[in-house]
Amino acid sequence: MSKNETVAGIAAPLPLNNLDTDQIMPKQFLFGIDKSGLARGVLYDLRTDASGSSRPEFVLNQPAYRGARILVAGANFGCGSSREHAVWGLQQAGFDAVIAPSFGEIFYFNAQANRLLLVMLEPSIVATLMERVGDPATSHLNIDVQRQCVITVDGTEYPFELPARQKRMFVEGLDMIAMTLSERGAIDSFEANHYAENPWMKIDLPKQQRPA
Fold first, then answer.
1. Distance from first CA to last CA of the chain, Å, rounded?
2. Within 13 Å, how many C-alpha atoms sit on residue 105's CB side?
3. How is residue 72 annotated by DSSP?
4. CATH number for the domain harbouring residue 105
5. Residue 191, domain member (yes or no)
6. Region 49-55 average pLDDT
7. Is 166 helix (H, G, I), strand (E, B) or coil?
């Protein structure tokens, strides 16, 4: 995975509170056995009508917002079920970050584990950003992850908090496994001390059964 210290690009306004994971990734797109092909399902019922035709009024169907990398959304974004497909689908659809006043708890941790950047800001600030990005002329945002601030086209900066662990994962390009393996020395040291103090707990596997 590559390092990424900033997310910059078109931001699309999505002023809907309590947008749940069923709406972000409807159930009919969950039949695959891997992560692929989920982009088509993202916000499907908002993007299309009952016949499956595109809704031209929906923001992501408008030419000015095609290729958007950032969503500016309403409160409690990603509430509902725990489906990780909502995170994967957003990423496959080209989104690298979501800015909102709050997020569903499980969605928040799913996103952070998969390096979808979530930025929480005060509702009044999100409302200001929503208004700005609602105009295609000022829809570009820059999220400086190292400095932890959102920067608008006129240079206004809005700082945000980000847990150190999630910040490191995003910047250094680490998933959960890579993050764990980065502490391999400490893990090996703990294991050695643990078995030295509790030798009866160690099971010696035949060589062919030992993990690589």
1. 22
2. 0
3. E
4. 3.20.19.10
5. no
6. 93
7. helix
Q: Which residue has the tokens 């030992």?
A: 210
Asked whether 4 and 170 are in contact (CB, 8 A), the reply is yes
Query: Which residue bears the tokens 């990423």?
Result: 91
If DSSP codes are grouped into helix, strand and coil, which group holds residue 37?
A: coil
Task: For residues 93 and 71, give the distance between their C-alpha atoms in angstroms, rounded to a whole number.
Answer: 11
Is residue 188 domain-resident? no
Q: Is the pLDDT of residue 118 over 90?
A: yes
| Ramachandran sector of residue 179 (left: φ over 0; alpha: ψ -120 to 50; beta: rest) | alpha
In a domain, 64, yes or no: yes
Domain that holds residue 128: 6-174
Q: Amino acid letter at 106? A: I
Q: Name beta bridge partners: 103.
A: 77
Under a CB-based contact definition with an 8 Å cutoff, are residues 168 and 1 in contact?
Answer: no
- Residues contacting residue 31 through CB under 8 Å, at least 6 positions apart: none
Compute the average pLDDT of residues 107-130: 95
Q: How confident is the model at residue 64 (pLDDT cuts 50, 70, 90)?
A: very high
- How high is the pLDDT of residue 1? 44
Least confident of 34-43, 122-131, 138-147: 34-43
Within a domain: residue 209? Answer: no
Share of the chain above pLDDT 90, in %: 67
Rounded-to-integer distance, Cα 48 and Cα 97, Å: 23
Q: Which residue has the tokens 């950032």?
A: 70
Tally the domains of the chain.
1
